[in-house]
Amino acid sequence: YIDNKEWSPEITEATANATYTATYKSNAIGLALGEIEDSTGYKEDQTFTVDTSSLPEGAEIHWFVNGEDVGTGESYKVEDPTDDYTIQAKAVDKDGNVIDETSTEKVEVKNSILDKIKWFFSNLLKNLLDAIFGDFGKIC
Fold first, then answer.
1. CB burial readout 70-85, b (16+ within 10 A) else e
2. Is residue 50 exposed (0-12), middle (13-18) or buried (19+ Cβ within 10 Å)?
3. Rounded-to-integer distance, Cα 74 and Cα 120, Å
4. Rounded percentage of the chain residues whose pLDDT exceeds 90
């Protein structure tokens, strides 16, 4: 596999005065991220999903945040982001070959001083109400 394509014919030894024509078939399975917001609030969780219905048997989805493999599964949750990040999903077959991948999407995190203050007081109020009324945050 080279660049998500299966090349054929497989040439193991080239000979002189021969012409070889390489052709390929795509192994892409139509992997695409579900709807995403390209910006999010300070420390606001965001969950990403892909449709795995056409995933070949034995293959799995690997999630990449800022280029680093952070886990597998049909979905991935970025928790408490404080800085911009990129997200990408790759389908990997049972032999470890990447057979398809989504585009790399950038998510901007609103992290100005005003956003941080807003998050702080919102979180403080939620915690105070939880302390006074119990699990108030689950109601709101």
1. eeeebebebeebeeeb
2. buried
3. 32
4. 30
Q: Tell me the pairing of strands 60-65 and 68-72.
A: antiparallel
Contact 59/72 with Cβ under 8 angstroms? no
Compute φ and ψ for 116, nearest 5 degrees.
-65, -40
**Model confidence, pTM:** 0.64
Model confidence pLDDT, tens digit, residues 29-45 = 677 777 777 778 888 89
> What is the enclosing helix (H) or strand (E) of 117?
helix 113-133
Q: Are the beta carbons of 34 and 102 closer than 8 angstroms?
A: no
CB–CB of 81/107 below 8 Å? yes
Q: Quick one: pLDDT at residue 91?
A: 93
Sign of CA dihedral 11, 55, 31, 44: negative
How far is it, in rounded angstroms, from Cα 54 to Cα 56? 6
